[in-house]
Specification:
four-stranded mixed beta sheet; alpha/beta
Length: 402
């Protein structure tokens, strides 16, 4: 198991962030359905490799698609493969095999597709997806909605997605709609419904993937805790919901200035805040680290689905905070914590990229050294994270246990 040894340090300098993983997943699938065109730049992350390999398997007519540990790859491609009438077995690794796909197991058989599963992976599908009305809960995972939006324009006949509960993580669906528009697909949104015309064709084009706001969050926190960091290439008009992290960190007292596509954050005196993360659950590890160093109490709510990520991120975050001396408790949909003295500790990475990256920022300002296991889980989304961290002045040393 690889561990990373982290020492106190001050981050200072400028960084260009990697391309958005979320946007890249969507653009790669749209480009595949368009029959060509480039999608650049792409990070060499495990999740993006999973989508590229899965699309190649679809192109080759392979009967097995390995989604590795990528929930986006799995949930986006199940309805796409069904719309193409493919007989495919989806497999995966790690916690992906346990993550829910129940909405598809209910919906797809109602629309012409046979599903063979014991509740998770492996999943075997066969048959041709048919157009119609797709009633689905909006508060389970926006990835289901995205998968259907990608697939339904291909069908003969019009379709409608009807949300039976309020949509959470709506910015992710808005990102999907933007990518679809970029590829010439028309979707009409009205209240809780999406109307999708059938027999549409994806337009072939070259696509530029914008920088990743979710990765910006880690360095915004690191800069606010220790020094001064400038982040370049971020689109202020992006559909990425995680750009809201700037507004939230400012509520914590972070000194963040914006100049077009550039953000600069400086060491700040932080204070606690109340944050609802229903639309931005991936921001919780970073926000919790900021809260650990903030004066007063922070309450995070709206994060029920965090328990179904690469780890149970509510438990993972709170457990690590406690190890670092932070007064933190779990709630059903989030956590509460009081900022104060934070010390280094031996932490679990939980094979979760966002846990490792967030607590690497905590190590910057903690009293003493910190060690985090499962260090190379960062490869899932940000393989160059420790290189960028060290280039800004961080002190991270990956230890390879044999």
């Amino acid at each position: 198991m690889e561990k990373v040894l982290l020492q106190n340090a001050i981050l200072h300098g400028a960084l260009s962030l990697p391309p958005s993983k979320s946007a890249a997943h969507r653009a790669l699938i749209a480009s595949f359905l368009a029959g060509g065109g480039t999608v650049q730049p792409l990070a060499d992350s495990e999740d993006i490799c999973a989508t590229r390999e899965a699309l190649q398997a679809l192109a080759d007519g392979s009967g097995v698609i390995n989604c590795r540990e990528s929930g986006s790859t799995l949930r986006f491609l199940i309805p796409v493969a069904a719309a193409l009438g493919r007989e495919v077995t989806f497999v995966g690794q790690g916690r992906l095999c346990e993550r829910p796909i129940g909405e598809y197991l209910r919906l797809l058989p109602e629309h012409g597709v046979r599903c063979e599963s014991e509740g998770g992976l492996p999943l075997r599908i066969s048959g041709q997806l048919t157009a119609g009305t797709y009633a689905i809960a909006g508060d389970i995972s926006s990835q289901y909605i995205t998968g259907l939006l990608l697939a339904l324009p291909l069908l003969t006949g019009d379709s409608e997605i009807v949300l039976t509960t309020p949509l959470q993580s709506k910015p992710y669906v808005e990102m999907t709609l933007q990518v679809l528009r970029d590829y010439g697909i028309e979707i009409t949104e009205k209240e809780n419904n999406y109307y999708i015309k059938g027999n549409q064709a994806y337009c072939r084009r070259d696509y530029t993937v914008e920088a990743d706001w979710s990765q910006a969050a880690f360095f915004l926190v690191g800069g606010a805790l220790t020094g001064e960091v400038t982040l370049r290439g971020l689109n202020p008009a992006s559909c990425q919901g995680d750009k809201k992290v700037v507004e939230i960190l400012r509520r914590f007292g972070a000194d963040i200035t914006a100049d077009g596509a550039t953000l600069t954050v400086r060491k700040s005196a932080l204070h606690g805040a109340e944050v609802n993360v229903a639309d931005i659950p991936d921001m919780v590890p970073s926000l919790a680290v900021a809260a650990a160093f903030a004066e007063g109490t922070t309450v995070i709510t709206g994060g029920e689905r965090l328990r179904l990520k690469e780890s149970d991120r509510i438990t993972s975050v709170v457990t690590n905070l406690k190890k670092m001396g932070v007064d933190a408790v779990e709630t059903a949909d989030g956590m509460m914590m009081k900022g104060g003295a934070v010390h280094g500790a031996a932490l679990a990475g939980y094979n979760d990229h966002r846990i490792v990256m967030a607590f690497s920022m905590a190590a910057l300002a903690a009293d003493g050294e910190t060690v985090i296991d499962d260090a190379l889980s960062i490869r899932k989304s940000y393989p160059a994270f420790f290189e960028d961290y060290n280039a800004l002045g961080g002190k991270a040393h990956v230890i390879y246990d044999r």
